Amino acid sequence: MRFIESILFKDGRYINLPLHQARLDGVFAQFLSGHDSHDLEQILPNLKLAGTYKVRMVYDVDSEDATYDLEFIEYQARKIETLEVVHTASIHYSYKYEDRSSIDSLLRESSADDIIIAVKNKLTDGSYFNLAFWDGTFWFTPNTPLLNGVRRTQLIHEGRIKEREIQVDDLSAFEKVSLINAMLDLGQLELPISQIKS
């Protein structure tokens, strides 16, 4: 079974590395109990690159000699101008699996740039990102994410976003949505609610 970590490397620094390490440790504890997980501080190279890069780590937990591959990719955010809510009765992506077929099949149902996945009418995540909604006063993130991403965890710990249940019908109560993930901080990629087809 293979998993992914996508880590932001910006101007010579790995961002949120302790949160990535915690997620990696959780995967090993669940799927390869008793075996030490990879130590990111040991295996990630000490580089002095300027600019923004996505570090894509693909690793397996199929045996005690769990292998991994690292790839550095110069990062540019995807252009996302439209979103569509897609509905499903059930979907599971609580770990960052390399196999994303269940999410990709929902993405293919939409003609928008990306999707917001609703499970039993509750908003969860997009295809590659968590969500934060601005109501004019504060940012709220659904308390039913498919994957509790590292940026989402960071923002909750910092008090910049709060969790609450958000249903499809609640969208009209918000002004805009921010798409957040390891590569995207709060407010970097925003869309007005009017750009969400529900």
Question: What layout of secondary structure does this protein have?
Answer:
Blueprint (H helix, E strand, L loop, with lengths): L1 E9 L2 E2 L2 H15 L8 H4 L8 E9 L7 E7 L8 E6 L12 H7 L6 E6 L2 E5 L3 E5 L4 E4 L7 H8 L4 E3 L11 E5 L9 E3 L3 E2 L1
Parallel strand pairs: 5-6, 5-13, 9-10
Antiparallel strand pairs: 1-2, 1-3, 3-4, 6-7, 8-9, 8-11, 11-12
Describe what this molecule looks like in 3D.
By secondary structure, the chain is an alpha+beta fold. Helix content is 17%, strand content 33%. The chain has four helices and 13 strands. The strands form three sheets. A five-stranded mixed β-sheet has the order 10-9-8-11-12. Strands 2-1-3-4 form a four-stranded antiparallel β-sheet. The termini are far apart.
Distance from N terminus to C terminus (CA atoms, Å) equals: 34 Å
Principal-axis shape = globular
For the largest beta-sheet, the strand count, sense and barrel status come to:
5 strands, mixed
Q: Rg to the nearest angstrom?
A: 17 Å
Low-confidence stretches: none
- The strands making up the biggest β-sheet line up spatially as 10-9-8-11-12
Q: Could you give the order of the helices and strands? A: EEHHEEEHEEEEHEEEE
| Strand fraction | 25-35%
Count every helix, treating DSSP H or I runs of 4 or more residues as helices: 4
The count of β-strands is 13
Q: Helical residue percent?
A: 10-25%
Look at the helices and sheets and give the structural class. Answer: alpha+beta
- Average predicted confidence as pLDDT: 95
